[in-house]
Amino acid sequence: MASIAEREREKYDAVHATIESYTDNSPLEHFLPAFLQMSGATGGTVLDAGTCSGRGALALRDAGFNVAACDLSDGRIPEMKASTITYVERCLWDDLSPVAYLARACDVRESRSPFSGQGFDYVVCADVLEHIPTEYVPLTIRRLLDVATKGVFLSISLVRDIHGIRVGEVLHETVETFYWWKERIGTLGHIVECRDLLATALFYVEPRK
Amino acid sequence: MLNESTAVDEQVLRVLDGIEMRGHINVTEDTILDNVRSAIRRGYKQVQPYAPRPERVIVLGGGPSLEDPAIQKEIRNLVFRGAKLVTVNGTYQWAIERNLQPKAHLVMDARPVNARFLQSDAPLDKLQTLVASQCAPDVFDAIDGRDDVWLFHAISGDEDTALKAILDEYYMGQWVGIGGGTTVVSRAVTLLRTLGYLRFDLFGVDSCWMNGAHHAYAQPENETDRCLPFKVHPTGHPELARTFWCAPWHVKQVEDFVQMIRVNGEHFLLNVHGDGLLAYILNSGADATVIEQAAEADVA
C-alpha cells in the first residue's frame, strides 16, 4: 500500500506531466520583495522548500543568496536543472537536515561552500503549505523551522486551487483562514511579522531557541 | 459598486439646499498615516468582500432615541428573533448594560480617546471587533489579545493618496477600501455590506438633538457642538416641513446617508427606526428631500 508521501508524489508527478502551465508562475518570485522586507535579509544561505519549477530559487540566487532547493516531485524548468543549485527530492514533513548536508556536500565550491551542512540561514516555503494534508501541517512547519537558523518565510494560499480539477485531484488540501494559520504557526515559532493579503497569508517566523 | 468611486450626476448628490458645509477631520493627515503604518503591522486580518448573507443586522448608533423604551423593545424583539447586533463606539457598553450581547463592534475614529470604547469586562470570545486602520495605537493596545479582530481601511478604492500608497506597498495591492460617509455609522453600513449583509435596521441614528441630548449616553467630545435648526420637507411639499435641531456633523451624516442611498441604494435594504431627522427623510422619500438652513455651517 502506498504511503501518504508516495501518493502525494504520484499526484504531483501527474500534475507536472499533464498541466504544462502549472510551472509558469512562481509565487516565490512574486513574493521575493516581501521576503526581503520582512526578514531584512540581504544575503546568506536559503532553502527553497517546495521549489516546484525552481523559478523562485533562481530569483533568490539572482538576488545574491546561496540557494538549495527541495521538493517531493520534480517539476523543475530546464534553466533550474542546468543551474548549480543543489536540488534534493524530499518530502517536507520528513527530516530536512539531509538536505542541508547535501547542499554542502554537493556544492561545487567544495571547501569554500557557504553552506554549513547543518542548516540554512533562511528557509522559504512559497504557496506550499496549503498543499500539505492538514494532519501533516504542524509537522511540516516544525521541519522547516528545524533547519532555519534565522527565520522561515511562508506564503500560504487561503483559497481553493484551480488546477486540480484537470487531474481529478484536490491540490490545496488545507484551505484555512488567516487566523487558523497564525495560531498554528505561532504555536511552533515566533511570528515576527504576518500580513493578510486576502487570498494569501505571509509570515516571517523565527525558530524558538 | 459600493467601495468604488463612480461618476455620479451632481444633481443626484445634491441634498443640502442653501448650506455651505466646510469641515476638517479631527486629526491631521500625518497622524492618520502614522496610525495606519502602525496598525497594518499588527498582523490582523483584513476585511474583504463576502457573498451575500441573509441575516438581518441591527446597527446601533448612539443617538438619543435609544433611551426611548419603545425603541429598546424593538431592538430586543429583533435580537430575540435572530438579528445580529452590531455596535459602534459607546453603544457596545450601552448594549452590555442592557443585557444585549453584540456580535460585532466597530470603531473608526482616529483619536486616541476612542480606546475607551474598547474597554470591557464582558466576555469577548464571541465578539468580532472591526477596527479602522486609521485608529490610534492606543485603540489597538486596548484590543491586544482579542481573537477575532478585523482591520478595515476607511478609503475609497481608487483614491490616489498617500494612504493608498502605504497600503499598496505593504499589502502588495491586496486590500479593499471601505468607502462611505464621514461618521462611523454611515461607514458601518458600507463595511457590513462588503461583508455580505444586505438588510439593516438602524437604531439610535437620529442625526439630530432629541429631548436636549445629542447622545443616549455621556459623550464629552460633543458637549460643545453647535445646535442649529434645520427645516426639512420633501421637494414641493413645504406643508410637510419639520424642524430638527442638529449639529453640523448630524447634517453631514444625513447628507452622507442620502447620497449613499441615491448612488448605491439598490445594494441594501435600510430601515431607520425612531423619529429623528434621518428616519423622517427616509420615510418621506430620500430622493425628494431638501434640507434648508440659512446660516453657513461648520462641520467639526
What would you say this structure looks like, in words?
The complex is a heterodimer of chains A (209) and B (300). Chain A has 209 residues and is an alpha/beta fold. Chain A has seven helices and seven strands; from the N terminus they run ααβαβαβαβαβαββ. Chain A has helices at 4-18, 27-39, 55-62, 78-82, 97-105, 137-146, 178-188, and strands at 44-49, 65-71, 86-89, 120-126, 148-157, 189-196, 200-207. Chain A has a seven-stranded mixed sheet, with helices on both faces. In chain A, 46% of the residues are buried. The mean pLDDT of chain A is 95. With 300 residues, chain B is α/β, with parallel strands linked by helices. Helices cover 28% and strands 21% of the residues of chain B. In chain B, the strands form three sheets. Chain B has an eight-stranded parallel sheet, with helices on both faces. In chain B, α4 links the parallel β5 and β6 (104-107). Classes of the chains: A alpha/beta (209), B alpha/beta (300).
